[in-house]
Specification:
The chain has 4 helices and 21 strands. The protein is α/β, with parallel strands linked by helices. It has one domain (7-315): Ribonuclease Inhibitor (Leucine-rich repeat, LRR (right-handed beta-alpha superhelix), Alpha-Beta Horseshoe), CATH 3.80.10. Strands 2-3-5-7-8-10-12-14-16-18-20 form an 11-stranded mixed sheet, with no helix packed on it. Strand 2 and strand 3 (78-82) form a beta hairpin. The structure holds 2-acetamido-2-deoxy-beta-D-glucopyranose (8 copies). Keywords: Leucine-rich repeat, Membrane, Repeat, Signal, Transmembrane, Transmembrane helix. Residues 1-26 form the signal peptide. Residues 90-187 form the Disease resistance R13L4/SHOC-2-like LRR domain. InterPro entries: DNA_repair-toleration, Leu-rich_rpt, Leu-rich_rpt_typical-subtyp, LRR_dom_sf, LRR_N_plant-typ, LRR_R13L4/SHOC2-like.
Length: 316
């Protein structure tokens, strides 16, 4: 009976058709697609020293030999575009999204500006995006949240404005996030609490405000570095910060944190660098700090601290 069920026949036909369609679609992109994408990118370079790309990115040679381009061994498609330190200026065209095998996109230390096109959301294989030290003066687009394999995202030292998009909560593979030296506002993003893989968070030199959530370490147990310096954070330093037992570097300096330095910080045995200076902290430096046997830097300048630095410091 089931064999002749017209419904099943139609479904099967439909499945076969979609399968064929996806094969055709996959076959339709090849290294020529990558070449067109990179040539479109080249067309959007407005300045470069001795026209580096104009000479090197020539159609007479394979894209896989072009400077800054690496192809994969298996598919012979572009997997890495690394043009860091090339001294280029320009914009990023939507055609770049046709580099469908791209895993690494590194354009650090150039002068790229303009928008970050929505089409780049198609680059689903991206693991590392490094746009640091460029001139992007836009809001961070929410499409970054679609890059589910992204492990490292470096957008620091641009002029990014607005808030950190909620879609970042979908970056379930993210380990390293650097958004420092921008003009981002709002509070410490609770969306980070969806990303337990996070190990390194740099948010320093922005305009973030509000308190540091006391449950941060329940959600981010793997945190190794937390940089929040030079923002407008206020309120107490939660004593529960000591639950981040992997933390090696904690920088809260140049904010408006108030209250005491929690003695529980003395439990954070991995801590090597602790920056708390230029805040509104008061009271004593807790003697427990002397338990931090790995501590190499302790910065406490310009605090309203009473008393003297405890002798236990000299244990370190
Ligand atoms: C890439 O595919 C196009 C058709 O989509 C074809 O004309 C071209 O020859 C292919 N290029 C290579 C290098 O296979
Ligand atoms: C482009 O640069 C690469 C790396 O420096 C070099 O190996 C290649 O030969 C150059 N290609 C051309 C056409 O100049
Ligand atoms: C890109 O190239 C630079 C200089 O060659 C190198 O230092 C950097 O590690 C590369 N980026 C990635 C992600 O491999
Ligand atoms: C940035 O790139 C320029 C060349 O455009 C180079 O001279 C400079 O050393 C690079 N800076 C860093 C930190 O690599
Ligand atoms: C490349 O990207 C452009 C713009 O996003 C698009 O119109 C075009 O169809 C793409 N080409 C291929 C071969 O995928
Ligand atoms: C996260 O991803 C899910 C499923 O892909 C989607 O439904 C949701 O809207 C995304 N959330 C955000 C904040 O983008
Ligand atoms: C701290 O708060 C004062 C107002 O109480 C404000 O003027 C100052 O800019 C704040 N500093 C920082 C670093 O947020
Ligand atoms: C953390 O430190 C406090 C006070 O210094 C202490 O009472 C507590 O037992 C410590 N907790 C852990 C998990 O070491």
């Amino acid at each position: 009976m089931a064999k002749n069920n017209p419904f099943i026949v139609i479904i099967t036909a439909f499945l076969v058709q979609s399968l064929i369609f996806s094969f055709v679609k996959a076959a339709a992109t090849n290294i020529t697609t990558d070449q067109h994408a990179l040539l479109a990118f080249k067309d959007h370079i407005t300045y470069g020293p001795v026209n580096l790309l104009a000479k090197n990115w020539s159609t007479s040679s394979s894209v896989c030999t072009w400077i800054g381009v690496t192809c994969g061994v298996r598919h012979h498609r572009v997997t890495t575009l690394n043009i860091s330190n090339f001294g280029l200026a320009g914009t990023i065209p939507p055609q770049l999204a046709n580099l469908s095998f791209l895993q690494v996109l590194d354009i650090t230390n150039n002068s790229f500006s303009g928008s970050l096109p929505d089409e780049l959301a198609q680059l689903r294989r991206l693991k590392l995006v490094n746009f640091m030290f460029n001139s992007f003066h836009v809001e961070i687009p929410s499409w970054f949240g679609s890059l589910s394999k992204l492990q490292v995202l470096l957008l620091n030292n641009n002029n990014l404005v607005g808030t950190i998009p909620l879609s970042f909560g979908n970056l379930s593979s993210l380990r390293v996030l650097d958004l420092s030296y921008n003009q981002l506002s709002d509070s410490f993003p609770s969306i980070f609490f969806n990303i337990p893989s996070l190990q390194v968070i740099y948010l320093s030199y922005n305009s973030l405000s509000g308190g540091l959530p006391s449950d941060i370490c329940n959600y981010l147990p793997n945190l190794k570095m937390l940089h929040l310096s030079s923002n407008m954070f206020d309120g107490p330093i939660p004593s529960t910060i000591s639950k981040c037992q992997q933390l090696q570097m904690l920088s809260l300096s140049i904010n408006n944190f108030t209250g005491y330095i929690p003695k529980e910080i003395g439990n954070m045995s991995m801590l090597t660098k602790l920056y708390l200076g230029i805040n509104k902290l008061h009271g004593m430096v807790p003697s427990e700090i002397g338990n931090l046997c790995n501590l190499k830097i302790l910065a406490l300048q310009f605090l309203n601290l009473a008393g003297i630095v405890p002798n236990t410091i000299f244990n370190i």
